[in-house]
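User: Assemble these into one structure.

Assistant: Restating your components, then the assembled model:
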Amino acid sequence: AQKITQTQPGMFVQEKEAVTLDCTYDTSDQSYGLFWYKQPSSGEMIFLIYQGSYDEQNATEGRYSLNFQKARKSANLVISASQLGDSAMYFCAMREGAHFGNEKLTFGTGTRLTIIP
Amino acid sequence: GAVVSQHPSRVICKSGTSVKIECRSLDFQATTMFWYRQFPKQSLMLMATSNEGSKATYEQGVEKDKFLINHASLTLSTLTVTSAHPEDSSFYICSARALRVGGTDTQYFGPGTRLTVL
């Protein structure tokens, strides 16, 4: 079974609208972390936001917020007021385990977001 | 903060030659760095975990004799693709582990290296 599932291979959104990118995960660990990264056409992976499994509040970083629904095992990324520069691939990733040193990330297949002017 | 650089950004080489890719953490020390491979339109696949001063841990299916990893200092890890062949052509990207404000362990990525083997 896939550990990270991103069901939207591509999305087109009008500029200034909000957009939600879906991510569901599968783990039996109680302690885990969820990440979102942005990969523009240049290729670098840009860290956007992090949510810990024990965090009670949804994470927010500027225009990015993470809609964390633990019971449903979903960690959707919400981008408010989208901009043309938001056009990129977006990857959801998970780190399992609570032990220091177990930092491997498992990535989803990504969603290509295109912002339309 | 937490800037990671990679060199070179692009490399084209002939089949059979070896290529070295450097990954540096510029403003922090990284005891652990990671090497990923990404094929076009696909996700990142972890190749190996590089720990300073010790042998790298390779993921299943990754040939350790072909992809040599050396983490000689707290700011530098190198990946050497030995006897490269066209099927090794890919985008190689490294990351370094750092603590964010608040104590969250986060991986910060380099800009990647596009390897083309002719």
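Chain A has a mean pLDDT of 92.
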